[in-house]
Amino acid sequence: MTKLEFSTTTKVKLGRKAFFDATALESVTSTMGFESLGDYAFEGATSLKDFNLTFVVVVPTGCFQKCTSLYSIMGMMYLTTIEDFAFMDSGLATIHLNTAMTKIGNYAFKGTSLSSLTLPNKITDFGSNVFEDVVSLDMVELSQITAIPDSTFSGCTKMKSITGADKVTSFGASSFQETSLSSITFSPSLVEIGDSAFQETKLVTVTLPETAIKTFGSSAFEKIETLTSVNLGGNINIPSRTFFGCSKLAQVNSFDKIVIFGAQSFSNTLLTTLAFAENVQSIGEFAFSNTGVTDIKLPFSLTTIGEGVFNGCANLATVDVNGLTKIPKSLFSGCVKLTTVTGFDKITSFGEMSFLLTSLPKLNFSPKLEKLGDMSFMQSKMLTEVTIPKVADFGESVFREVQSLKQVDLTQNTIIPNNTFNQCTQLSNVSGSELVEIVGKDAFKDCIMLNALNLYSHLTTLLDSLNSLKYLFFHGKEAPKIIPSDPTLSQTIKIFVKEEFKAEMFGGVKVMKLGCNETQFVDITKDTPMCTNCEKDKKSVDGNNYFCEVEVDECILKHEKCVLCEQEKCVKCADEYVLDKIDDKCVQECPSGYYTEEGHCEKCKEHYITPCETEECEKCTTSGVFGTLVVSVILYVLLIL
To answer: What pTM was estimated for this model as a whole?
Structure first.
């Protein structure tokens, strides 16, 4: 059956799914018209070409859904309500909505073929996704509509203009997403822009009202690749991803009013200058990543700054961190032109990858440094030397692949973590290793210019195979307990030890002893290494060294086993010795009442006999009182007596 005509004396009522999936049906008419239609009455009637709705007040749910050949609807003069899915995915190309219409349900015209549209003024119930994916729709008249629901025109890719937008006070989430809208004038009474409302449109400029938007969703203008300028109006809070991916956005007016920047709010834009307000409170993660900024001055008012805020800013050259003491993860990662950071010496914590791939020529670390996160300075381009203060949280790969790095001073650090100097191909000198206890895996891997390294008696764990090292000078009496196993210690390395070292092997490698004295050094520039006298006024501490590092003056001569003096007093003793500050001399064991702390003797609490292992003296190394528990028991007994 392709045609059906009702010849009746009264209006026809069609029940629910009356002609559901009637794929051959092309025409349905009634001499007296239709009084009502049931839900899904013609759903799937793919051959139905037109229909006359005269006298019909309500088009029910899904009534003409998937009627792909239905191009026109006549007789809508009595129609007041169109329910959910009523014409969804039909072939409807033209429609003239009754001016008295009060309701259009969810998805009512989604996926149709409408090309133009005028909305009635009296709609009070306007559903979501009503015209979603109407790819042929290019012109819309909003009349007096003040609220556009979620996804109303989302995916209407040909829509270039709308009339009446200046009356709208609320734009729902994704309401115009992926349209071709090129311009819009916002109402001064605008109170809401929902999430992704204008995402991936074709807007060129955006001017927000001078009154702050009360409900401002995320990603509102995300990925508008045509957008060149923005006026933020009276807004002080820019939500996350608001202008993310606006790849031509170079000008932002009223930027200096913003107090809170959401995550990725201006990421991947062309911004070159950032004039922050003096009262900025928060900058979210990656807020300005991959922008064109060249210099930055962070305000003192800043209380929160997220990860990666300036990540990938390839033109950023100078930064003033203005009292910031903690640098979050990836904050300046990939800022390849960054050479100057004012306030660097006040920073106590560097997050993971915080300065990865930057060009800082010098690092003036704070003496209060607490953290160097994983990869924090990895692949830096200009760094030639670095002095690392003692740091409690020393991450992995901190200076990995810094191929310009030539000289390192470890000062008081006890750990060289995994991959710390891996592939630092110009590194030739490492000093300050006297207190190192642990050398991590691949810490010095492929440091091809590092011929020699000093390690001392504190060493307990060696995990690096030292694959490119030619000479290891070990100053302890016995090899560390943990030696690299996968891979094993390089079998080509020459290991020099002191006379006190009794074993013949060190990690499977035969050791060498030349017996040089403290005024000599091992000359490794010769084909066969040999003892060579130090220059005048210099010595090598114990003779087992490849250079003479100690400047000999009256203070050094006066203090046996002292290697460093300041103001005529010894401040550092040779390996295996500690500084007794009271008697101003180097000793092998602190006197009674003192314990060893970082190379010198510190006084214990009065009720303990020492030498002790810690300040609290939980245990004593010789015949003393064993801990606070014992003392407490003794005092308790005395009180009872």
So the answer is: 0.84
